[in-house]
Amino acid sequence: MKVLITGANGMVAKAAIAYCQSIGDEVVTKTRQELDISDREDVFSLFEQEKFDAVLNCAAYTNVDGAETNQIVCAMTNDAGVGNLAKASKKINSAFVTISTDYVFDGTKGDFYTQRDQPKPQGVYAHTKLLGENQARLNYARSIIVRSGWIFGEGGTNFLSVMHKFLAEGKSIKAISDSFGTPTFAKDLAKRLRELAELDLPAIYHVTNDGEGTTFAGFAEKVCELKGLDKKLVEGVAMDSLSRPAPRPRDSRLRCLFSEKFGLSPLQSWEKALEEFLQ
Q1: How far apart are CA 102 and CA 10, in angstroms?
Q2: How confident is the model at residue 168 (pLDDT cuts 50, 70, 90)?
Q3: Neighbour-count burial of 170, counting CB atoms closer than 10 A to its CB (0-12 exposed, 13-18 middle, 19+ buried)
Q4: Cα–Cα distance measured from residue 90 to residue 231, given in angstroms and rounded to the nearest whole number
Q5: What is the pTM for the complete model shown?
Q6: Is residue 264 part of a domain?
Q7: In a domain, 166, yes or no
Q8: Structural domain includes residue 67
Q9: What is the pLDDT of residue 128?
Q10: Which of 11, 40, 187, 270 is the most exposed place for a label (fewest CB within 10 A)?
Q11: Quick check: is 52 in a domain?
């Protein structure tokens, strides 16, 4: 399969590149500098030239707080850019998989969100990601939308991906203890993106590692447990104690209604995935 992977410098994209290459795909990678997905002309030119079998869109504006003041830049990538990729994929009849987020929900349900739940985004980032979902669905019926969240992995710069380094150095960290999510290992997510492209059943999928989810503090304590570190290094703090520009859902745990029915086995537990990551 000839696969385009956008946002090639990102954590999930790098994992997807490695997996696709490992199974013998012809992989074309494009960083943000090499392909601005908000540039319709460049996108269509590339697609007409290369004729991809599948497109895995890992390009996104992911600075949740920065989006509050960079609304246009955020929207151009997360909204318009997804629309361009969907339209171009339709023109060459390629499979199209794009990543969305658990942040499309407001976090007030108090239970796992499924595809039956109505999105209710709160911040600019979340709104643009939902608009991107709509762009995909409206412009290409073959679109596959993957909602995920709390992603961690090799090369990641977010809190979940780097906290183990601070803890290993004996540094204390503050971690939110009253905000819940379902951690997702980038390596496992990347494999599922490729599987969905092959399955070619258009829908919205919720893709996370298996389990009941956790808090940031719970995740950090699990890191300590797996690495034999002192859990006292982790100081639990309330979500509301952090003054951050963008609102975030308090409980954005995801569960999928479709995956197993379509023959996709559950991803490994987030605890097992974390153990693999730390090794």
Answers
A1: 18
A2: very high
A3: exposed
A4: 51
A5: 0.97
A6: yes
A7: no
A8: yes
A9: 98
A10: 40
A11: yes
CATH of the domain at 265: 3.40.50.720
The number of distinct structural domains making up the chain is 1
Looking at residue 4, its pLDDT comes to 98
User: What does pLDDT average to over the chain?
Assistant: 97
For the chain, the first-to-last Cα distance in angstroms comes to 31
Cα–Cα separations (whole angstroms), residue 231 to 165, 238, 239: 14, 18, 20
Q: State how far the Cα of 50 lies from the Cα of 17, in Å rounded to an integer.
A: 17
User: Are 154 and 10 within 8 A, CB to CB?
Assistant: no
Please report the pLDDT score of residue 247 as a whole number: 96
The pLDDT value recorded for residue 252 is 98
Instruction: Find the domain containing 107 and state its range.
Output: 2-158+184-213+248-271
| Cα angle for residues 59, 30, 18 (degrees, 5° grid) | 85
Give me the catalytic one of 19, 61, 103, 125: 125
Question: 108-124: per-residue pLDDT in tens?
Answer: 999 999 999 999 999 99
Are residues 206 and 147 in contact, defined by beta-carbon separation less than 8 angstroms? yes
- Our answer to whether residue 125 is catalytic in this structure is yes
Note the pLDDT of residue 144.
98
